[in-house]
Amino acid sequence: MDIIIAGDGEVGFHLAKTLSKVKHNITVVDPHSELLRLLQTDNDLLTITGESTSISILKEAGVASCDLLISVLHEESINIITCMLGKRLGAKRTIARITSIEYLSDENKNMFKGLGIDEMVCPERIAAKEITNLLTRNTATEVFDFSNGLLSIYMTRIDTDAVFIDKTIVETAQLYPQMDARIVCIVRQGETIIPGGNDYYRKGDLVYLLVKPEGLEVVKELFKKKDFRIKNAMIIGGGRIGRRAALNLENIMQLKLVEENKERCLKLLDELSSTMVINGNGSDISLLLDEGLRDTDAFIATTDSTETNILSCLHAHRQGVKKTIALVENINYIDVSQDIGIDTIINKKLITASYIARFTLNGEVTSSKWLSGIDAEVFEVIVKEKAPATKNTIMNLNIPQGVSIGGIIRDGSSFIARGDTQIESGDKVVVFSLPEVANKVMKLFN
How far apart are CA 364 and CA 367, in angstroms? Predict the structure, then answer.
């Protein structure tokens, strides 16, 4: 696929690096020549220095024949203009990063589509939604739903008292047949493992499972994960993510929001109905303690400073806070953050990539997610009529290494995939894949 990415920072560059690994033809347009030289040095892609709103620059990038134009600059208006121009100049599909949530209403989305913008992604809105999901399903470190929750990816860490430590996946399935779930990935000391039946569970593993709603309680019981009700939470940072998270949560639990900018605090007071807004520095530990940190069930750090978010979450964890969530912009910090005690990491680059990834796969992908801290994705794809996957059972399909078929949604019901499962046309299949083989496995469903 020929893809043009317009960006002025880490989101665009992360997308470019990731998609170039999957063998797409990537051209990056960016006004900063020094950054482009660094990007091109380590990646197989083309770069053009210039503004993406320049018609001559877009033509030079090959917009007339490109399959996908992605504009993810910080400035929303530039993304909108870039996509409008690109569509008029011949781009087959366009995606714009936006910050105004009002644009995502059905009426406004249709208006923008008429202007040439096929899709819009708002990372801040998705991040706030993830925070809400994590605080309402509090035993998970990461969670993602398919088909309105008929199947879910549930990620958690194996603690010392889990019943199946040092047992193989086959042994566990035999001992605990009531665990109706599929292990799709294990992360062990930074290594991503697509497990087979003879792989072992080890203490400290991060485990990704695909589960049905009714199977989740059994999974939590076997992993020794005890539910607890989050009655109150503290958010530091009243920017777009912190504000949206507070709007989502304030009718569910008691909230305190700490924001350093006084003018922003006044705006938050107008927008939030029951959240206590505190004007102060979120890295001031004495302030947080005075505001009741020790009695807080959940702590969410969403400031513009990754270091502040990590350190404040660590301090909250030491004060006995049950659930900590940090916004981490530097992807290199994700593994370390999870290892030192932060429950969940939110990263806008991964969120943006998750949304856009479905449009780069050669198939009818209805949703997708790039998993935090590992180079892998999980997606839901609709099986086409007479696709190769319908010709045999899963165990007899030619599935590439680095792929796991997790579950199937059929006629409004879901079930976990087994070796003897027969996939049918029209099924929605949830697939876990390493990036380099994602398009190979898509051939099974087309």
Answer: 9
